[in-house]
Amino acid sequence: MAEIVAIKRSTPEGPVWSSLEKGVLRIVLANPPANALSIETMAALQAQLDGARDDKAVRVILLAAQGKVFCAGHDLKEMTAHRSDADRGRAFFELTMSRCSALMQSIVRHPKPVIAEVDGLATAAGLQLVASCDLAIATDQAAFCTPGINIGLFCSTPMVALSRNVSRKQAMEMLLTGETIDATTARDFGLVNRVVPREYLNHIVGKYAQTIVSKSSSTLKIGKEAFYAQAEMGLVEAYDHAARVMVENMLASDAEEGIGAFLDKRQPEWKGE
């Protein structure tokens, strides 16, 4: 893998802050101790993701958090405060779920690879956030759960992302019991890619990020989009779709350059086309 690149941190402002260094945009949930997905936090995170879509300087996105909790899910205090509304909070609850669903889908549909860097507890919509990312690297201190069942609220929206990462039996185990699983179990379930000691987290995530940065940005976009599209299709439709994508990919300038460089035994010069 490529050499790790140190990321210069900017001064935190608001519930989310970011820094950009050599193609890697690091977005940090900065509202400890819970880093809850309040309306304000989701809007700030969405703005960061939206801003990175067409920014050619951004090649890979890292999603991290401050404190011992990666993300505790929705802000239950914020939601409970709206129970006194005339509609008992229905409109606010609908707004919260709509914003959250849009946020998660924007990660999946984002043209840039998104890597979750998890050092702490990811619960409910926080687990959903991890599961929505393309890759997830966790420390051995990380933990995961969908505890809604414990408070009379089934984790239905986190279920969507969870069930697309782990087997049905494992997803239902987490959803029905609400019990917390450790990082190693999360890796065995397929929720995270790797589990590393805390002191090596930035090093390992940095190596992943820089390895991906070294690839063709247009090819990454094509591949990520195709991966999630075919995953929602039947076998025949998936192969038909993937074949069409391969043909278009072969005609792209970067594929021509990459294949030519391979045959010429030289390093490719990507243009992102």
From TrEMBL:
<dbReference type="Pfam" id="PF00378">
    <property type="entry name" value="ECH_1"/>
</dbReference>
<dbReference type="InterPro" id="IPR001753">
    <property type="entry name" value="Enoyl-CoA_hydra/iso"/>
</dbReference>
<dbReference type="InterPro" id="IPR052377">
    <property type="entry name" value="Mitochondrial_ECH-domain"/>
</dbReference>
<comment type="function">
    <text>May play a role in fatty acid biosynthesis and insulin sensitivity.</text>
</comment>
<dbReference type="InterPro" id="IPR029045">
    <property type="entry name" value="ClpP/crotonase-like_dom_sf"/>
</dbReference>
<keyword id="KW-0443">Lipid metabolism</keyword>
<comment type="similarity">
    <text>Belongs to the enoyl-CoA hydratase/isomerase family.</text>
</comment>
<protein>
    <recommendedName>
        <fullName>Enoyl-CoA hydratase domain-containing protein 3, mitochondrial</fullName>
    </recommendedName>
</protein>
<keyword id="KW-0276">Fatty acid metabolism</keyword>
<dbReference type="InterPro" id="IPR014748">
    <property type="entry name" value="Enoyl-CoA_hydra_C"/>
</dbReference>
<keyword id="KW-0809">Transit peptide</keyword>
